[in-house]
């Protein structure tokens, strides 16, 4: 399994993570951090939006396919028509009594 402990502090200044609330950062540095985070958020959001659109279109196509197939199969269903015809023939051929 992966080790869950945080990596040891790096000697490279570009690889260290900082906590903006604890570090003494200037306004320019905080502004730059916010800009970078916003750009990263926009990039992730556009990817997610594309995935969501593709997923929505796939689900919509599936639903429309099932809906269309249901109408197609019901329109070809002749069982109820055949049963009605048989019942009509049976009534016509049956004995005529006063109750009929």
From TrEMBL:
Quick one: where is this thing mainly located? mitochondrion
* Disordered: annotated segments: 1-26
Q: Does the keyword Membrane apply?
A: yes
- GO CC terms for this protein? mitochondrial inner membrane
Q: Where are the bilayer-spanning segments?
A: 52-72
Subcellular localization, as worded in the UniProt entry: Mitochondrion membrane
Q: Which GO terms describe its biological process?
A: mitochondrial respiratory chain complex IV assembly
Q: Does the keyword Zinc apply?
A: no
Bilayer topology term: Single-pass membrane protein
What Pfam families does the database record attribute to this sequence? Coa3_cc
Domain Cytochrome c oxidase assembly factor 3 mitochondrial coiled-coil spans what residues? 40-86
Keywords annotated in UniProt: Membrane, Mitochondrion, Mitochondrion inner membrane, Transmembrane, Transmembrane helix
Protein family according to the UniProt entry: Belongs to the COA3 family.
What quaternary arrangement does the UniProt entry report?
Answer: Component of 250-400 kDa complexes called cytochrome oxidase assembly intermediates or COA complexes.
- Role of this protein: Required for assembly of cytochrome c oxidase (complex IV).
Q: What is this protein called?
A: Cytochrome c oxidase assembly factor 3
Provide the species name.
Neolamprologus brichardi
């Amino acid at each position: 399994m992966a080790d869950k402990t945080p990596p040891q502090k790096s000697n490279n200044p570009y690889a260290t993570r900082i906590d903006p609330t604890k570090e003494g950062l200037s306004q320019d540095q905080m502004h730059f951090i916010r800009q970078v985070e916003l750009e990263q958020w926009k990039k992730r959001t556009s990817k997610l939006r594309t995935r969501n659109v593709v997923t929505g279109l796939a689900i919509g196509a599936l639903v429309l396919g099932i809906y269309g197939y249901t109408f197609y199969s019901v329109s070809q269903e002749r069982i109820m028509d055949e049963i009605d015809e048989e019942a009509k023939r049976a009534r016509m051929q049956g004995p005529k009594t006063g109750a009929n």
